[in-house]
Amino acid sequence: MMDKSQIVHLLAQMASDASGPESLMAETVSLLQRERPHYNWVGVYLLEGNELVLGPYVGKPTPHMRIPLDKGICGAAASSGRTLIVDDVNADPRYLACSLETRSEIVVPIIRDARVLGEIDIDSDQPAAFAEDDRTLLEAVAEILAAKL
Ligand code: SME
Questions:
Q1: Which of 2, 28, 115, 119 has the fewest Cβ atoms surrounding its Cβ within 10 A?
Q2: Which of 62, 65, 84, 108 to mutate to test the pocket of ligand 1 (most atoms within 8 A of CB)?
Q3: pLDDT tens profile 5-27
């Protein structure tokens, strides 16, 4: 398993080699899922007007292809511009279910020049799967993506 700095280093390399944002986002979600198997669903949403629109993802198809900013944990993270970690999704009234197996979630905004461009959304089938270490990893990943979107 690659450690955090190895993932960030590889991703920075991928970002400079990528042919465009779409392929970089696709490579990023695959890398994260491969290196952190408990990240059961990994996707990128991009902000279009007042809606988050699903881009590349790995995991089961979700009914939530478009999420208004005032809905879901995804909408809350994008609106606040802050990372949200939910240890028990079933106890959070904002939660929009994607899969019955999902127990916890982290959403990390992608921000450039104080503007939210989108977010990385990750679901885990394990309860309380996300800690500070995941936050710092994913915030570094979001920063790399932000420069390329
Ligand atoms: N759970 C998210 C919706 C997206 S799916 O997890 C892919 C939310 O509550 O906003």
A1: 115
A2: 62
A3: 999 999 999 999 988 999 999 99
Q: Is the pLDDT of residue 123 over 90?
A: yes
Ligand 1 contacts CB of residue 123 (under 6 A): yes
147: tokens are 């420069």
Closest among 47, 12, 55 to 145, alpha carbons compared: 12
Q: Which atom of ligand 1 is nearest to the CA of 92?
A: 9
Segment 86-121, tens digit of pLDDT: 999 999 999 999 899 999 999 999 999 999 999 999
Estimate the crossing angle of helix 132-148 against helix 21-35, to 10 degrees: 160
* Alpha carbon distance 109, 44 (integer Å): 10
Does 74 sit in the ligand 1 pocket, CB within 6 Å? yes
Tell me which of 41, 51, 73, 90 to substitute to probe ligand 1's pocket, judged by most ligand atoms within 8 Å of the beta carbon.
73
